[in-house]
């Protein structure tokens, strides 16, 4: 269960059944995939004023944050009137409480920009404990795999600033995404599309591509040697990582790299860096990393064989989606 409004009589008070404008704004931002919950973050009440938030993952203004499990503190109740507070994850990824104003007919407070709302809390006058029945689940859930009914796909990272390395033979990272603990579980899929250009004009250059998840190498291969050339060529990567179980990931996809050779027209010079016959190479790999035990990082790296200013690889874009 996630975003909901109780019927009259279902909560501790009928105030909890009222639909407020703030709730609609939360729903709209969540459905748009701007400020939403991707996994976890359920709230459980107890015998005091410190309800517990479960671990999870959220997007705030489209930025992915891990949420650690922990308590939040509801401020002391008013002596005369009830109020409605909001439990949120801020735009900095921190758990917080937005305190409402006590009144005979209270309404929830305004959110701070890009707050991800987890729950609305009814705080009666003179209250000293926040039981679960006083908490309305306001999580707008988005995600892929087992979360397919929550409006997948959703973009979890978009990279538009070029990442460029040259004059180095060290391995370089062109894309990295940290998936919070408990997000990439059985049934989830992550699709990554990225591409750019390369200039390989020194000696007999080669390129190694390495893709890893949670420190485990999914794929690693090196191209055949080519003759350096002053023309830039393009490269593209389209891969899908599938969680076949919480601790079982499978990688499949395609890599395409233009042949390293002189081009005589915009449509020529098409080839494959992995072989001389085709311009597309197939990628497959697997890992056995427990994605529910800790945050896990997904990386794409490349290595040029020669450290020379005439050897350069640029990543011009990258888009990662939970599907």
Search tags:
mainly beta, 3% helix, Tail fiber receptor-binding protein, single chain
- Name the structural class: mainly beta
Count of all domains: 2
Question: Biggest sheet, in brief?
Answer: 7 strands, antiparallel
- Radius of gyration equals 25 Å
Approximate helicity band: under 10%
Poorly predicted segments: 145-150, 264-279
**Separation, N- and C-terminal Cα atoms:** 20 Å
The shape, in one word, is elongated
> Element order, helices and strands?
HEEEEEEEEEEEEEEEEEEEEE
Query: Beta-sheet strand percentage?
Result: 35-45%
Number of helices: 1
The count of β-strands is 21
The average pLDDT value, as a whole number, equals 90
List the helices and strands and how they pair.
Elements: H1 21-31, E1 36-40, E2 43-44, E3 52-53, E4 56-60, E5 63-67, E6 70-71, E7 83-89, E8 95-98, E9 116-123, E10 135-137, E11 154-159, E12 163-166, E13 172-179, E14 189-200, E15 207-213, E16 216-222, E17 233-245, E18 248-257, E19 280-287, E20 296-304, E21 311-322
Antiparallel strand pairs: 1-4, 2-3, 3-6, 4-5, 7-8, 7-9, 9-10, 11-21, 12-21, 13-20, 14-17, 14-21, 15-16, 15-20, 17-18, 18-19
Describe the structure in your own words.
The protein has 323 residues and is mainly β. The chain folds into 2 domains: 129 residues, Trefoil (Tail fiber receptor-binding protein); 169 residues. 3% of the residues lie in helices and 43% in strands. It contains 1 helix and 21 strands. Strands 11, 12, 14, 17, 18, 19 and 21 form a 7-stranded antiparallel beta sheet that branches. Strand 2 and strand 3 form a beta hairpin. The two termini are 20 Å apart. About 7% of the residues have low confidence.
């Amino acid at each position: 269960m996630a975003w909901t409004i109780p019927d009259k009589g279902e909560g501790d008070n009928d105030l909890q059944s009222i639909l407020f404008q703030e709730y609609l704004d939360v729903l709209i931002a969540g459905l748009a995939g701007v400020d939403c919950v991707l996994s976890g973050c359920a709230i459980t009440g107890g015998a005091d004023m410190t309800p517990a938030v479960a671990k999870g993952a959220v997007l705030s203004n489209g930025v992915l944050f891990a949420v650690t499990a922990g308590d939040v503190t509801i401020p002391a109740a008013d002596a005369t009137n009830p109020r409605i507070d909001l439990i949120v994850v801020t735009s900095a990824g921190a758990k917080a409480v937005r305190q409402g104003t006590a009144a005979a007919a209270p309404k929830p407070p305004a959110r701070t920009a890009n707050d991800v709302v987890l729950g609305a809390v009814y705080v009666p006058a003179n209250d000293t404990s926040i039981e679960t029945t006083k908490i309305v689940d306001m999580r707008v859930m988005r995600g892929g795999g087992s979360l397919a009914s929550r409006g997948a796909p959703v973009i979890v990272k978009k990279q538009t600033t070029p990442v460029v390395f040259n004059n180095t033979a060290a391995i370089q990272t062109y894309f990295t995404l940290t998936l919070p603990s408990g997000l990439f579980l059985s049934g989830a899929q992550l699709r990554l599309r990225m591409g750019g250009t390369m200039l390989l004009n020194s000696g007999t250059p080669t390129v190694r591509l390495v893709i890893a998840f949670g420190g485990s190498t999914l794929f690693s291969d090196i191209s055949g040697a080519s003759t350096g050339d002053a023309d830039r060529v393009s490269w593209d990567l389209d891969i899908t990582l599938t969680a076949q179980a919480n601790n079982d990931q499978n990688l499949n996809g395609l890599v395409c790299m233009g042949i390293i050779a002189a081009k005589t027209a915009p449509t020529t010079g098409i080839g494959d860096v992995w072989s001389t016959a085709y311009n597309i190479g197939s990628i497959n790999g697997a890992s056995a990393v427990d994605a529910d035990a800790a945050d896990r990082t997904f990386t794409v790296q490349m290595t040029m064989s020669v450290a020379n200013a005439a050897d350069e690889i640029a990543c011009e874009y990258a888009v990662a989606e939970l599907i």
